[in-house]
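Renewal narrative, Specific Aim 1. Our central claim is that a sequence can be written position by position from structural information alone. The example that follows is taken directly from our test logs and has not been curated for this report. It begins with the structure tokens describing the chain, in the order in which they were read.
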């Protein structure tokens, strides 16, 4: 019987995994460990592998070991694949796949929630209320239909974000090298400098690569309106964190919401209560009442979890049977 090992499996994924295994008559075993040099030997004897983690996999030896064990693929059940050494994977004959669109609605709905909290100053109101200060000064909000939402990266997730805000009456603009005809009634495409200057909400939905690393830097933040808000529900390093903190402290922008941040590996998804979190930038952002922080849960809905499991396992099955996955990234 074909067998697959899934790394970094959470309890909430088990139901979908078991249902897929039964429906496809394939053995699927799981571990809560990340893939790495200390755990790669666990794959020995399996035909396929699925991973989901923040920890990077740079070591060429790891990919050599997977090849030695007869693996043909390395499947991620997440969107971001920057953790993978694609050259090493290629050199060892490993097809790398990801899940580019598990549930665009899941991330877009979190963005909506974050935007509404920022625009209505709910974080600032809560900080006051904790001190029994119930004054209104500074809490007057704009109505969302009067705002311009700027989307950097209008792919599947960015498109879902665009449609939500357009339905609420907002003006939506986007910057993306691909202009999608199906979005003609939803948004207008503009150059990035224009987007930064015009948008009241700037929300980022690009992949992370050498062209988008620190795309939102001091220059970009300085170009935004002082009344504007930044949303990052994509990948942490797209935003230069020290630059963001400075922009917030100097009131160059009005606030931010981050679902992902540089240096989040080993922090987000873990219970660190009673310990000192080794990320001072994150601690600084958490302390700001005009900043919304969530622990990389944009994807985390029931529909998305099931889709991530099913799509990734279907990709493994396709490759093992000699087919080609439409989600190949290398």
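The sequence written for that structure reads:
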């Amino acid at each position: 019987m074909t067998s697959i090992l899934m790394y970094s499996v959470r309890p909430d994924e088990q139901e979908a995994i078991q249902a897929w295994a039964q429906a496809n008559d394939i053995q699927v075993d799981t571990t809560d460990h990340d893939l790495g040099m200390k755990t790669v030997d666990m794959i020995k004897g399996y035909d396929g592998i699925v991973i989901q983690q923040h920890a990077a996999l740079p070591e060429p030896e790891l990919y050599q070991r997977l090849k030695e064990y007869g693996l043909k693929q390395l499947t991620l059940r997440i969107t971001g694949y920057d953790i993978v050494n694609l050259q090493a994977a290629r050199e060892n004959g490993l097809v790398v796949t990801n899940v580019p669109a598990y549930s665009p609605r899941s991330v877009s709905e979190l963005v909506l929630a974050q935007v509404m909290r920022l625009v209505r100053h709910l974080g600032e109101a809560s900080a006051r209320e904790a001190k029994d200060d119930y004054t209104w000064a500074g809490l007057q909000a704009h109505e969302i239909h009067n705002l311009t939402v700027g989307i950097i990266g209008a792919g599947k997730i960015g498109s879902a974000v665009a449609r939500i805000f357009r339905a609420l009456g907002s003006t939506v603009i986007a910057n993306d090298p691909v202009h999608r005809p199906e979005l003609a009634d939803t948004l207008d495409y503009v150059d990035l400098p224009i987007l930064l200057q015009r948008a009241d909400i700037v929300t980022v939905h690009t992949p992370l690569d050498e062209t988008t690393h620190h795309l939102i830097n001091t220059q970009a933040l300085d170009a935004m309106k002082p009344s504007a808000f930044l949303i990052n529900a994509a990948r942490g390093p797209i935003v230069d964190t020290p630059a963001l903190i400075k922009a917030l402290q100097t009131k160059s922008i009005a606030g931010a919401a981050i679902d992902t941040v540089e240096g989040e590996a080993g922090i987000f998804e873990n219970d660190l209560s009673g310990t000192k979190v080794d990320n001072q930038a994150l601690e600084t952002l958490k302390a700001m009442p005009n900043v919304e922080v969530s622990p990389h849960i944009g994807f985390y809905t029931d529909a998305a979890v099931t889709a991530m499991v099913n799509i990734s396992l279907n990709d493994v099955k396709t490759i093992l049977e000699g087919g080609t996955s439409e989600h190949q990234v290398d």
